[in-house]
């Protein structure tokens, strides 16, 4: 008990776990959809953080290769679970919006807040120009690949009721993306000697001192927790939309990515404040890359088996926002240094996009 | 008299002031719209130059902070006056075209001519890579923010007869832009210690040796002059369009930005010829930034009070031209050096865009 | 005979010349269109290589200036011949697709394969950052100019049955492009002292040891060969389309650029494997520049005299592919180094674009 209290004092984020029992209680007793929606959303934040923390402990206890594989596949586990539940419910627009929002959130909100707060404390912050430049090239390449089906499907066939040809393009692109993601993992081992991120990041992880046993236990508990909370959250989406008058698109593009990534965002911003800007940029860009090259195509294949085939066809708003976000992140990180004004501009773009998304008709 | 003559010999541009009385005479006597249009346009060129020159003297006589504020707000004063008059007359398309044209003119025509003439005389010209790179990032960010309402409003509501939601997005974006502009000014003081441009630029200003009194007198005279000439110019736009068969769009995008900025363009090109390419690039990019982040949102708010609300929704031609212009300027200035071939290519793009705009149906 | 055999052993590509007599025989005897199509396509590959090789020998035997002019005009001779024949036959869409495909092939397929194979053998490969950056700026500028008529004509007039205004824009842009191409040649002499490429490339050319006489003979033979094969190939396009069910667009954008450039592609990849990455990048980008700034506008003027006026209006698929290809090539080459993962990503984008083009309805 004392241990848990001292853990909570160090990691105040985990107090939010208190929302978990209320979400379950609400579902049993039959509270309003909005209440259940809020409680389950709040509960997902610390659960996603626990998955991340326990994955890192596991990664430490295995060989570096398996560890990296764990990080590479479980890095966005919470988001993956939420979107799989949403696919089962047939909320495909919500899924695509949350893929978009996850990439935008990392590139604009997280990077922006890190550069703003880091820059206010440390002035101009430097990070490895070469690494950053190489990462941002990969990012642009990945997003261009992700967008090709959206840009070209229109000329191939009807995208509203997808023809076989349109689905074939999405599947082909998804297959190529997963191959590239695997090649990227191999590359980072052969040439760079593995991602440095995991080690350094470990320092500030809340999981310090956990044994392997505890880590596995926490991972299982947190994963089950996210699954249950996702069920409650996704089940409440449609009544909430009707009650509050916000669009499904807005929930997908702003709300879900934030709750699924708060814990990770927190780490990236902390790193910037500690003047470890390179790590901060790396976390934000690596996470975007993972969503674009791994989570998105994986969802295409999973959705196929679930009978609700998801195509990689984003709506024009998503396209514009992704293109804008990627160009900016590439430009900002490419010069190898940041300041608070750049941070403010990134956040301003996120704010304006958020406003536009909020004004969208439901 | 002798002083004025010697001033004119050094600054031949100001001979164009002779057009001022003819414009007024023409308006009184009732000459043709085309004649008044031409005389008032010619008169604006030196008047805009006088506003710039006297602002710099004023800036020298105040504290650096107030001086920078003067430069930051009066830097595009002539253009601001012309567009405010045009808003009052309800010529909103003309206003948006001239915002576009001002940014394009700075990035393609001025930068192109500076690189061409500077490069022909000095070969490859260098300028501070870091500063240029940071400026071009800001430029891309600003133009992306400026374009978001155009790109997204279409999906929010009817943009022809703007709905409240579409106007709300424009106002929100305008507010964010002005905040960013102010943050940018603060940043340039806190971190860089103020814009170096003003001082160095002073060297070649025509205002050398003016007292504070003269400077204020010139500023008042020139401002009143620009207001009167703008009235005559804008009043003649519609008859001129019908007579000559050129489109309002062409007048706004090519003609008005040129007459409002000739004096400033002149300085930028002179700097390049004197091999001060850094200053030349800085002038062109800073002026574009000011139009995008300060003049455009200011006009949105002013237009609101004048009862002719201006939205930040540009037509597709303007969007394409702005995106192309900004990408090119960012690329060209980002590598920190220029040559005459790059200058020729920038001017070629301006020429081709001008041709396309000219061929637009009226 | 022995000489020819030893030449073939060193340059196995030229064994494909054996397809030449079969193509002619087939045309005389009346074989199926598909058979003639395949034989003439195969024969063009080595013939295009012979034109390139003999041009380089000629270039060595003249003054450097005339030599450079020869390389600059005959560098894409095979492609020029095929497209002229296609214009005469009125296959204008095929021509525009093959211009697009040629640029994409150089920037994605060739550069990608060079970076992949070079990177697998040598790890991270460096090339001159400055030169590469300057080249990629030129490339972006050129492609933006090339695309302006497509992007803007829509707003000027009907692009299906081109009005005089739409054609005027294409002609104006074509004229500006050729001026820029000539300026670029002058620049490379005045400032850089001529392209270094030709010399170094010569090393591995198959033409080593040819006399001037042989070179002229080979050039004449190969040019006549390409003309005849192009006639057969283009004549067979329409029956082949109907028989195989692939679109004219796919043949133009993937197939024709490959057969016209295999020999050159081969050299670029060989250079990368020999760790001369700078040369490899230079060949790919210079060839793209030549297509965009010289071949495309030349075809506009030639088509005018042939009575089948070609406008520079590309379809949206071509636009998207070109923009994506150029942004990526600029980004990848701008940082002055490459690795096999970047190569794989470039080839992946080519593959996905190819898949999308293949799925296009005929």
Quick structural gist:
In chain A, 80% of the residues lie in helices and 1% in strands. Chain A is mainly alpha-helical. In chain A, helix 8 packs antiparallel against helix 12 (277-305).
**Percent of residues of chain A in helical segments?**
over 70%
Report the biggest beta sheet of chain A as strand number plus sense, adding barrel if it closes. Answer: 2 strands, antiparallel
Query: Based on DSSP secondary structure assignment, what is the total number of beta strands of chain A?
Result: 2
What strand line-up does the widest sheet of chain A have? 1-2
Using CB atoms under 8 Å apart, which protein chain pair has the greatest interface? A-B, 30 and 32 residues
* Class by SSE composition of chain A: mainly alpha
Query: What string gives the helices and strands of chain A in order?
Result: HHHHHHEHHHHHHHEH
Give average pLDDT of chain A, whole number: 83
Q: Ranges of chain A with pLDDT <50 over ≥5 residues?
A: 196-204
End-to-end CA span of chain A: 47 Å
- Report the oligomer: homotrimer
Topology of helices and strands:
The structure is a homotrimer of 362-residue chains.
Chain A: H1 2-10, H2 19-29, H3 33-61, H4 64-74, H5 77-88, H6 92-122, E1 125-126, H7 129-156, H8 164-190, H9 197-202, H10 212-244, H11 248-273, H12 277-305, H13 316-334, E2 337-338, H14 340-359
